[in-house]
Amino acid sequence: MPSLIVSVITFLIVALVFGGSALVGIELSAALGPRLYAGREPAQFPRASRYALIGSAALLGALAAAGRADWQALTLAAVVCVSLAASWHSAAVYQKIPDFFTLVPLGAVLLAAAAQSEWFLILGAAVPFVPFAAMAYFTKGRGFDWDDAKIAALGGALLGIETSIFVLAGACIVAVAVAYGRKRTTEAIVIAPYLIGAIGAAMAVRLMP
What we know:
Elements: H1 2-36, H2 47-66, H3 71-94, H4 99-115, H5 119-139, H6 146-159, H7 161-181, H8 192-207
Helix pairs in contact: 1-2, 1-3, 2-3, 2-8, 3-4, 3-8, 4-5, 4-6, 5-6, 5-7, 6-7, 6-8, 7-8
């Protein structure tokens, strides 16, 4: 019984930390967005989306705790939650993502990988980045842009080559299907939230016990 109580308390604490990380990301984006994108008309960010992000991050934390992830992995995942939540909010509100929200966590993951000689993670970031960067270059930001390429690189570093290719391709298919379903085929598709959601879901599955 005491061990069960300790486990439940641990789950709750980790879930609160991860949910708090998402809240920090949302508030960080909300604070920086008006300064970085003063000329853009911000879209509304529904309260339901806010709660969904925080709840999803808390669930990710609970799964990580249930999977008995070590504290180093938990810390990295919590930092990534800040980045993903901030990126989602910024993409939804301003259709742009500051480099700070993508390149900083990507750099941290790659530095950690290099320090531990885990070169496959560096390759994992490069492989999905290349096709997304090519699409951003050739489409000139219509549907795909450099923010998507940076998110793809982060996803590749976190998930590995095979998983990231499958997850990111699936996210793109869903984004296009939703656009066609809403009859918005003449508008640029904002793909970043779909990529971010897919990365978060894949992280949750990976952390499941």
